[in-house]
Structures are given as structure tokens and as C-alpha cells.
Amino acid sequence: MIVVSDTTPIISLIKINRLDLLKELFQEVLIPDAVYRELTTNQSFSAEAEEVKKAKFLKVSPVQNKQSIQILQAVSGLDDGESEAIVLAGEKQSDVLIIDERRGRKVAQQLGITITGTVGILVQANDEGMLSKADAKTCLNFLKQSNIRLSENLIQDALDMMK
Predict the structure, then answer these.
(1) Could you give phi then psi for residue 117, rounded to 5 degrees?
(2) Percentage of the chain exceeding pLDDT 70
(3) Is-contact 6 81, C-beta < 8 A?
(4) Which end of the chain is less packed: N or C, by CB atoms within 10 Å?
(5) Would you say residue 14 has pLDDT above 80?
(6) How far apart are CA 8 and CA 38, in angstroms?
(7) Strands 58-60 vs 29-31: parallel, antiparallel or unpaired
(8) Is the pLDDT of residue 147 over 90?
(9) Are 45 and 38 in contact (CB under 8 A)?
């Protein structure tokens, strides 16, 4: 299975101390150069940077078609990480792109890329017996308290899907 991730889901999973779910679910997750830079050089994520550097299952994979990134940014207004993640997912014909930002999700879907997000990862981990519903609810509440934008409806929908 080929999985590509944008920055925010990785940061979110680190915040709830569950980055391990990506490794357990997928064994390997590809991230483009821009996402790696965002995760490791941004002062806002200095605590998370060390965890990212140690996560051997996160594999940096450069985007081949740089012009596609520029075109995507020009027409969509997406940032470097989102644009590179979407282009990389297309180039690698990924099975799934993990992305949380609404605009990025919409663009990826328009391009025919299958997406999920942080909440989807928690639901999948529950489905596969890696995370109890109670633990998932704790994770969702902590994300919301950490200023990650999650609506009450999204949280309830996710919990309704869980066993």
C-alpha cells in the first residue's frame, strides 16, 4: 500500500502521542521534501521535529514534476507541503493521501486522489483493534483542546463509526 501524508496529520498524531498508528496501519508513509522541511525546520514544531527525525517509517520522497507543484499552487493557493503531497500522491499513484486542510482535501478529491485525515486514521485504528473507542474519544478531545479545528459533528460522526 502506498500512503502519502501532508504535515498537519503528522503534527496532530504527535500531539496526541499516537504517531505510532501510522506505522502500525501502513508500515511506511511517504512525505515530500516540503512536508519534511515543515516538520523539521519550523520553530513552531521544534518538539515534534525530533520525533519525526526518529520515525524511520516516514520516508522522504521527492516530487519529480516541479512544474506541477507550481501550477497547483497558482490555481489553488495551497502551501508548499499540501501541493507537494498532492502531486506526490498522484505521481506515486498512492492508495491514500492523509490530509486535513479542507481546501487541500477538495483539490485532491477533484484530482481523483483517495483521501483520509487524522480523524479517519483514528477511525481506521479503531476498526483494526489498535485503539479503543474510549481512547479515540480522548484523542479527539485532546486535538480539539489543542486548537485543531474539529467540529462537534465530525467528532460525533467518527465516534458513531467506532465499535
Answers:
(1) -140, -170
(2) 100
(3) yes
(4) C
(5) yes
(6) 10
(7) parallel
(8) no
(9) yes
Q: Is the pLDDT of residue 45 over 80?
A: no
Cα dist. 138→8, 14, 17 in Å? Answer: 19, 14, 11
Q: Would you say how long the chain is, in residues?
A: 163
pLDDT tens per residue, range 94-139: 999 999 999 999 999 999 999 999 999 999 999 999 999 999 999 9
Element (H, E) at 97: strand 96-98
The tally of CA atoms less than 13 A away on the side-chain side of residue 8 is 21
Which has the closest alpha carbon to 42: 15, 4, 81, 76?
Answer: 81
The amino acid occupying position 99 is I
- To the nearest 10°, report the CA torsion of 97, 104, 124, 139: 130
- The number of angstroms, rounded, from the C-alpha of 157 to the middle of its chain's C-alpha atoms is 19
Closest CA to 121 of 149, 96, 142, 103: 96
